[in-house]
Amino acid sequence: MEHVLTMNNGIEIPILGFGTYQITDSQEAEEAVFQAIQTGYRHIDTAQSYLNEEAVGRGIKKANIARAELFITTKIWVENVSYEGVHASFQQSLERLQLDYVDLLLIHQPFNDVYGAWRAMQELQQEGRVRAIGISNFSVDRAVDLSLFNKVVPQINQIEINPFHQQTESIKLLRQANILPEAWAPFAEGKHDIFNNEILKTIAKKHNKSVAQVIIRWLVEQEVVVLAKSVKPERMRENFNVFDFNLSDEEKKQIATLEQGKSQFFSHADPEMIRWMAGRKLNS
């Protein structure tokens, strides 16, 4: 169970992924991916909107690991979320990544022609150019809607999950829909001084671990795929070293008290945010 989870199509996904969001410097992104793979990560997550697919591809190539050992995710940005947009932009993503296929392709945001995009993604999966398909930032009702009216149930829903926004009910409902939850921003990008939170620091000290390791372990024990990002090799190693301790029920109850019941970033139901995403053009 610990190191991999199995998606609804029988394909395994490493439970620990290396995230590349906000690593925008080309050389830094390439080196970070290379170092992550050297550390032991086999799951690398990028996206069209991160503008680093080329650098990620170079880092993968530099690591010189057998392709079958790696699990690579990318995501379709809002302007490309349509039947034609997926086919055209996915080919561009493959070329930037220097890959023949990706292991997981996600619709990055629940906007634009989601149904058309999903039909195209189903075709890519049937052709073997994508091993698994999924969604990101979809509310549970949108995820279930997509599931019920299409041939393929999304394999993954990548959503914000962290100690301040724990998404307990969403995780439960996604599991009921046979969709695996995956966590972005597990550290809430440092908000509310999370690395100095007294509850998390006390738990970390007890296990001789860091706060980051406690948070990752908290997600691993929920069988949630988790993406952790760092450009520092020592932090990469630390974040990867979470399989030698367990949290007690009491510690989990203490973490539960940190819940704030809302996103630490923005609401996907905010019309202004939707307008901003619709106006952010990568291909212009």
Automatic annotation (TrEMBL):
Keyword annotations of the record: NADP, Oxidoreductase
PROSITE patterns attached to this UniProt entry: ALDOKETO_REDUCTASE_1, ALDOKETO_REDUCTASE_2, ALDOKETO_REDUCTASE_3
Pfam families in the record: Aldo_ket_red
InterPro entries for the chain: AKR, Aldo/ket_reductase_CS, NAD(P)_OxRdtase_dom_sf, NADP_OxRdtase_dom
Annotated ranges, domain NADP-dependent oxidoreductase: 16-258
PANTHER family reported in the protein's UniProt record: 2,5-DIKETO-D-GLUCONIC ACID REDUCTASE, NADP-DEPENDENT OXIDOREDUCTASE DOMAIN-CONTAINING PROTEIN
UniProt-recorded name of the protein: NADP-dependent oxidoreductase domain-containing protein
Source organism of this protein record: Candidatus Enterococcus lowellii
